[in-house]
């Protein structure tokens, strides 16, 4: 869930670093890549495994708490079903990143 203190738009996007960096470059232009802007799956929680979408990719899509954009959700959910190391970034602010380790 987005912090109530933020007024920025973010993504929570999982996958291989090279793939995520390519998607992030799309946010530098005027047309955003659909795979970066929209959720990777139609229902939530998005189930994430090391093989999701062939490469461990999952994206909650664009998130914000701005009342002027009511169609953009403030939160999303990911469900980890397999042990693994899951790297994520914000495609808009690539310095915002982290890793989740799911143990057996």
Short description:
The chain has about 100 residues and is α+β, with helices and mostly antiparallel strands. Helices cover about 10% and strands about 20% of the residues.
List how many beta strands DSSP finds.
6
Q: Beta-sheet strand percentage?
A: 15-25%
- Identify low-pLDDT runs: none
Shape: globular
Element string (H = helix, E = strand): EHHEEEEE
Q: First CA to last CA: what distance?
A: 25 Å
**Computed CA radius of gyration, to the nearest angstrom:** 13 Å
- Give average pLDDT, whole number: 92
- Tally of contiguous helical segments: 2
Q: Please describe the biggest sheet, giving its number of strands, its sense, and whether it closes into a barrel.
A: 4 strands, antiparallel
Sheet with most strands: strand arrangement: 3-1-5-6
> Helices and strands: which structural class?
alpha+beta
Give an overview in words.
A 4-stranded antiparallel sheet has the order 3-1-5-6. It has a two-stranded parallel ribbon with strand order 2-4. It is globular, with a radius of gyration of 13 Å. A hairpin with a 7-residue loop joins strand 5 (84-89) and strand 6 (97-102). The longest helix is centred in the N-terminal third of the chain and has 9 residues, at 17-25. It is an alpha+beta fold and 104 residues long. It has 2 helices and 6 strands; from the N terminus they run E-H-H-E-E-E-E-E. The model has no long low-confidence stretch (mean pLDDT 92).
SSE blueprint:
Elements: E1 13-14, H1 17-25, H2 34-37, E2 46-48, E3 58-59, E4 78-80, E5 84-89, E6 97-102
Parallel strand pairs: 2-4
Antiparallel strand pairs: 1-3, 1-5, 5-6
């Amino acid at each position: 869930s987005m912090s109530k203190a933020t007024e920025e738009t973010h993504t929570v996007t999982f996958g291989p670093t090279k793939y995520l960096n390519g998607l992030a470059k799309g946010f530098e232009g005027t047309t955003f890549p659909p795979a970066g802007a929209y959720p990777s799956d139609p229902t939530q929680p998005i189930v994430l495994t090391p093989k999701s979408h062939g490469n461990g990719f999952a994206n909650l899509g664009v998130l914000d708490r701005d009342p002027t954009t009511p169609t953009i959700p403030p939160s999303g959910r990911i469900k980890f079903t397999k042990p693994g190391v899951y790297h994520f970034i914000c495609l808009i602010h690539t310095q915002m990143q982290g890793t989740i380790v799911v143990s057996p």
